[in-house]
Design goal:
Blueprint lengths: L35 E2 L24 H12 L2 E7 L8 E7 L13 E5 L8 H4 L2 H10 L7 E5 L13 H16 L9 E6 L1 H12 L6 E5 L11 H7 L7 E7 L4 H16 L5 E5 L5 H5 L2 H8 L4
Parallel strand pairs: 4-5, 4-6, 6-7, 7-8, 8-9
Antiparallel strand pairs: 1-2, 2-3, 3-5
């Protein structure tokens, strides 16, 4: 369903001008094993927030007391890194577990992978308030609890063929997360999204690995320049069973090349009658724009969980 319609665009296929010319990928010899470097720093302890007035009394059963306390404390965030044969450096990432994850040891959770924008790091979605918004929505009972994974793309200006980030995420990070956290390891409970360049990666990952992701979110989404000639084929290969749910949004004052790219991609979805949601909001290409929509994004990702 579309929220807005954009007409009268004569869209040239000049996409993602923000990316530099391609550079050759460093040759990495496979080691035969993949090691894991654990946290550079221990997980942050939850802030000790006083109980809500009147919410906990001496008569409260212990099980209820524990539940309310962990909901108030919120989720936990860990900073980790993972060695990958596809990269010449460890893949850094953050894992944000939901409220009460440590207490509810018999529960498994959906996973949302969110990718940051160009020149930023894996802390961007945290700074935009994704963790706090998720905690609040889960504590209020408005969303089911889910795990958020925030991988870092350390090579900010390369195209996919010169950057092993996508392969490191698909082949190394996803299996590691599923084996080290209590996840529901299927595509219906795994989503990928990103903002700006992170949206380019989300589109690339979801369309080249439809077996891994059941939902794709693109926030201010340009398509990678070298992906432009491939997107039609990727979309044509989708079936009713493999097509992800798709959300696209962008500010009406975004950069012209990025806006044109997003509109062009949305037009390809239209041509193929692929269901998707498309929103043209007020705003530009900035953290202010994305932070104002974080809660809306999270509600959409978790809508079918």
């Amino acid at each position: 369903m579309k929220h807005c319609y954009i007409t009268a665009f004569l869209i040239a296929l000049a996409l993602l001008s923000a990316c530099s010319p391609l550079s050759a990928r460093s040759a990495i010899a496979p080691t035969g094993t993949r090691s894991v470097a654990t946290t550079a720093a221990p997980p942050a302890a939850p802030t000790q927030t006083p109980p809500l007035a009147g919410s906990i009394t001496k008569q409260t059963p212990f099980a209820q007391l524990t539940k309310e306390t962990c909901l108030i404390a919120g989720g936990q965030s860990e900073q980790l890194s993972l060695a990958s044969e596809f990269l010449d450096h460890p893949l850094a990432f953050r894992v944000v577990t939901p409220p009460c994850y440590a207490e509810h040891t018999d529960e498994s959770y959906p996973v949302l992978y969110l990718i940051h924008g160009q020149t930023y790091t894996d802390d961007q979605w945290d700074r935009l308030g994704a963790g706090e918004a998720a905690d609040a929505l889960v504590a209020a009972g408005e969303l089911p609890p889910f795990i958020i994974v925030l991988p870092a793309d350390a090579s900010h200006y390369t195209q996919p063929s010169a950057n092993g980030f996508d392969e490191a995420v698909a082949a190394d990070l996803l299996p590691w997360i599923d084996s080290h956290y209590r996840t529901i390891p299927d595509r219906q409970h795994r989503s990928v999204g990103g903002l700006s360049r992170g949206a380019s990666w989300a589109i690339h990952l979801a369309l080249t690995h439809p077996e891994l992701f059941g939902a794709l979110g693109g926030h201010s989404p340009p398509v990678f320049q070298e992906d432009a000639s491939k997107v039609r084929g990727w979309l044509d290969a989708l079936t009713a069973e493999t097509a992800p749910r798709i959300w696209l949004d962008i500010g009406e004052r975004d950069q012209r090349a990025i806006l044109d790219s997003a509109v062009w991609f949305e037009g390809l979805l239209d041509e193929r009658d692929l269901p998707h949601e498309w929103s043209l909001f007020t705003g530009d290409h900035s953290e202010d724009y994305w932070s104002r929509h974080v809660e809306l994004y999270l509600r959409w990702y978790a809508a079918e969980w």
